[in-house]
Amino acid sequence: MTAPLTRPGALPVQVPLVTRPLGIWDSVRASRRNVLSIIPEIATHQPIVSGRTGKRWHMVTDPGAIRRILLENIDNYPKSVVTKNLLRPAIGESLFIAEGAHWRWQRRTAAPAFSHRNVMNLAPVMSRAAERSVARVARAGPRAVDFLQEMITVTFDVISDVTFSGDAAFDRDAVHGAIDAYISEAGKISVLDVLGLPDWVPRPGRTFLTGGVDDMKAMADRAVEARAGRDAAGVPDLLDLLLAGEDPDTKRKMNTAELRDNLLTFIVAGHETTALTLAWSLYLMAFDQQAQERARAEAQSVVTGVATGADVARLPFVRQVVDEALRLYPPAGMVSRTAQTENHLCGRRILPGDTVIVPIYALHRHHALWEAPHAFRPERWEAGRPDRYAYLPFGDGPRICIGASFALQEAAIVLATLLARFRFTPVPGRDPDPVMILTLRPEGGVWLEAEAV
Ligand code: HEM
Predict the structure, then answer these.
(1) CATH number for the domain including 118?
(2) Which residue out of 401, 402, 405, 406 has the highest number of ligand 1 atoms within 8 Å of its CB and is therefore the one to mutate?
(3) What residue owns the CA closest to ligand 1's atom 35?
(4) Which of 25, 93, 179, 386 has its Cα between 20 and 30 A from that of 6?
(5) 441 three-state secondary structure
């Protein structure tokens, strides 16, 4: 089959941002469907946009001001209460949620598990998951495949293998089901809370949120305890590394509940986000056949069979595709903070209690920061990296994503392996719709035909 080339000037799918002020109920309606649809279009032109929907909020897209929020004045901008309330039932006071000293000691204890050497040691798990994906896609034959679901399967394979590898007490399917159900229900609630809506606005699903989560925690506890009594065999996974980890200053180690909460955090924070990066990268590869040919030529010249950790450094164009996918469709499309004291950002007064949002989706499409911001141009990354605070798929400052290099390595291994084996073409009329509830997903799936090459 001859693949259609990209139409000149065509743009990949995007979220229509609002061009008129929304009232409270319009905001609720719009945001229940897509959080990003409440971002004013003007946020992609101006440094700051403020409003009030219950609470006062500010969306900041000025790199200097973002630097102050995430790095220089971090004590004034802890993670928003909303984010914490939302995730606490599933992941406790783990690294993702904790503040101050309780955050610091956990971050110091977990950091070595994500060192370059350890992430590299985990690469064979990623290569094996990529190989199983190739087999599944090949089995589907000429039928179109939903690469969103396929990538969710791959990344769950990886994250469950590197957290609870070989633990009989850990039922992967049950945990996967509980986490996905939690994320989709929790997302609906968070939207309303991010907007600062009063408690009497009905929150769908609040009552049954914790059921599956309790079973999942009990299962993870059993797996942690079973492992604690055993010597690590072979390459240590994240649980072995956390069991061995300790705060370098106080020598404090994590107890069972802390280990469990952090491992579940890695699963919640790491698996869907990486699956989305891969699914969007594949959508873009099918959208732009020329870029796909270039990426395939690179992958085929480097990869023999399945990509390995050592191949990653030799796949610069594949990495550019991933960087550009993370720019256009950042899985964490916004992060939010609650201001503690009175402050100024871009000359605007920020009051204690105000919600300060970094709308990463809008930042990555800001007209003053990016040329042709809505276009897919992986080659833009050849010229070098932009201003550090103009591109934040992993956040920044001390709370920067601990799993960034893990995710980028996994994305490169899986993408290069698939590109070396298949040519991807879109299914006409089935473009995905970018929708953010908790993460930015391709709604409707990424349906592609995969032809063996
Ligand atoms: C492409 C995939 C990923 C994306 C886009 C992503 C994005 C992010 C972002 C934006 C933050 C900062 C949130 C904030 O400041 O409010 C974050 C934090 C975090 N991420 Fe990731 N992440 C990814 C993969 C992973 C993986 C694979 C893991 C673990 C295995 C992970 C674990 C964490 C943890 C534990 C934090 C909290 C760190 C702290 O507060 O000290 N993430 N991530």
Answers:
(1) 1.10.630.10
(2) 401
(3) 96
(4) 386
(5) strand
